Amino acid sequence: MISAGLMFIDFNILWRYFNWANQATAVIALFVSAAYLMLKDKEYLSALIPGILMLYMVILYLLTEQIGFGLPMQVSYYISAVAVGIIVFIFIRYVNTVKEETNPNSDLLNDQKSIETLYPELVDQYR
Question: If both were cysteines, with which of 13, 48, 111, 122 could 34 make a disulfide (CB 3.0 to 4.6 Å apart)?
């Protein structure tokens, strides 16, 4: 039924929303990966830098396109840069706060533990 309904929508409009949603999902995945790597004291810039660039593009797209705010491109460049700077600052600060408050022996940081150790109730349930 949903597929049939989508057949009557202009594909260009649908594609614009899909494009935006796909890129936003990638940004979220890159930021989650960067947070994980930061918490583990690993090289996180390999996820954070592409995440920042994609975040900039997603915000710029929303500011300039008609499905968003329809602002002029020049204004959108600056607003996007400021918004990304604020978001990245909050992100890094939040991850560092979580890292400081997390016990080094917590399950969050010791993901090399076996499933049986972390969730014995689930393992027993499926045996």
Answer: 48
